[in-house]
Write a structure and sequence with these properties.
The structure holds two protein chains of two kinds. Chain A is about 30% helix and about 20% strand. Chain A is of the alpha+beta class. Chain A folds into two domains: about 55 residues, no CATH class; about 170 residues, Oxidoreductase, molybdopterin-binding domain (Sulfite Oxidase, Chain A, domain 2). In chain A, the strands form two sheets. In chain A, strands 2, 3, 6, 7 and 8 form a five-stranded antiparallel β-sheet that branches. In chain A, a hairpin with a 2-residue loop joins β6 and β7. Chain A is globular, with a radius of gyration of 25 Å. The model of chain A has no long low-confidence stretch (mean pLDDT about 90). By secondary structure, chain B is mainly alpha-helical. Chain B has a domain of about 110 residues. In chain B, α5 runs antiparallel to α7. Chain B is globular and about 45 Å long. The relative contact order of chain B is 0.09. The chains are: A alpha+beta, B mainly alpha. Chains A and B meet through α1 and α3 of A and α1, α2 and α7 of B.
């Protein structure tokens, strides 16, 4: 093959296009570079930083997409998954137990009434039931049947500042997570006391779990110990390790 | 695109839908959280690129002129030519097989993006998830479309390697300065 002869006048307009291409190619090569060096860059601090920056951008877009009026689909009881899978950051044999009668939920932060709550006291508030799909960040999903007190009802009851940014949950299995106020006030966000019409069994978070069908599984804390209304970003167990904070579905 | 595929395989490994996992050597992110972070970061980049492509394709007439599928007869004719290694490669012109494949892969790309959105936001975009037959089916379609794209990429690069003159144009966007005349290989 003979080397190509170049007709300078003919290529002039092409050159301009090439220039544009090269610019685009250069900007793309940053991505290509990170691919070539593969795993080594996974640990690179600046890559981590860029990824967490993008993750915060994704969080903002998720918050924009979220609507307090849009409801998660509710299913017929025949669609409930049996058995509903156990999932935590530890094995089922390591589930921690508490005595339901002595359990109290601590209430703190921007609320006017900080007295602790017993299960019996929660039973006096209006209850709501839902059969919804629990979607795990891993990709699997299962349909369950939860009932309990809408979080919005509880927050109003204790005089929470509903203009605060976050609601933070801490659990007695050392798990934690936090959500945005918009999701906290969503009608399907409930403080679940029952599963399948019976008190929550230990595997599913006894005595109380926060059930949020508009968020992924890791935003649905079990074994609740305390609730806090705050304007300081609280993070969470998985979120601090790199899962996106909003975790909406 | 490769970032989307590598990180997608990482996410797949967290809860495989088929009886196999992708080897860690070809996954991106190191763990599920890392894979997700890469997947969403690349998603915004790809969305931007896709938007530019769609606007350009519609405005310049690229879709209308170059990608509108030709009749089945010309597809058969060009497949015959390709198998006899006599297919022409007039730069800047797609033959009937290319038209069919490139249009097909665009449809696959649209389905990949829409099923992806439907399993990311099954509540906020619930109508989309419903359209694909629910969360689990949408997830399988997303995986199947990824497989088609990977197949297309492999085929595409293999065919291009058989006709090295096309590589210049694929990488730099234009044909080699001297290749205006039809070249058969």
């Amino acid at each position: 093959m003979s080397p190509p002869k170049i007709d300078r006048a003919g290529v002039a307009p092409e050159l301009r296009k090439l220039e544009r291409r090269l610019f685009l190619r250069n900007s793309l090569s940053i991505g290509g570079l990170s691919l070539l060096s593969g795993c080594a860059l996974d640990d690179n601090a600046s890559v981590e930083q860029a990824l967490s920056l993008m993750s915060r951008f994704t969080d903002r877009m998720q918050a924009l997409l979220f609507s307090r009026q849009r409801l998660a689909r509710e299913f017929d009881p025949s669609r409930i998954t049996h058995p509903f899978p156990f999932n935590a950051y530890y094995d089922e044999s390591d589930v921690r137990l508490v005595e339901t009668s002595s359990w109290r939920l601590e209430v703190s932060g921007l609320v006017s009434d900080k007295s602790p709550w017993s299960v019996a006291r929660f039973r006096t508030l209006p209850q709501k039931r839902q059969i919804t799909r629990h979607i795990c960040v891993e990709g699997w999903s299962a349909i369950g049947d939860w009932s309990g007190v809408p979080l919005s009802v509880f927050l109003q009851h204790v005089g929470a500042d509903l203009r605060a940014k976050y609601v933070n949950f801490r659990c007695f299995d050392d798990y934690s997570t936090s959500i945005d106020m918009a999701t906290a006030l969503h009608p399907q966000t409930i403080m679940a006391l029952d599963f399948g019409g019976n008190p929550l069994p230990p595997a599913y978070g006894a005595p109380m779990k926060i059930r949020i069908p508009t968020k992924l599984g890791y935003k649905n804390p079990k074994y609740l110990a305390s609730i806090e209304v705050t304007n300081h970003f609280p993070g969470g167990y998985w979120e601090d390790q790199g899962y996106d904070w909003f975790g909406g579905s | 695109m490769l970032v989307m595929i590598g990180s997608g395989w990482q996410i797949y490994n967290a809860s495989p839908i088929l009886p196999f996992e992708f080897p860690t050597a070809v996954t991106l992110g190191g763990w599920l959280g890392g894979g997700i972070a890469w997947h969403f970061a690349a998603m915004w980049v790809l969305m931007g690129a896709g938007l530019v492509y769609v606007v350009y394709g519609a405005a310049s007439g690229h879709f209308r002129n170059d990608l509108r599928p030709a009749g089945p007869r010309s597809v058969v004719r060009d497949i015959g030519q390709a198998l006899r290694l006599k297919l022409s490669h007039k730069a800047g012109h797609y033959n009937a097989v290319q038209r069919a494949l490139y249009t097909g892969v665009l449809v696959v790309a649209v389905l990949t993006v829409t099923t992806g959105l439907s399993i990311w936001k099954p509540v906020q975009l619930g109508w989309l998830t419903w359209l694909f037959g629910g969360y689990d089916i949408a997830r399988c379609i997303h995986f199947a479309m990824m497989s088609l794209i990977v197949g297309f990429l492999l085929l595409h690069v293999a065919l291009a390697l058989m006709v090295p003159a096309t590589l210049w144009g694929m990488v730099f966007g234009r044909r080699m300065p001297d290749s205006d005349k039809e070249s058969a290989s």
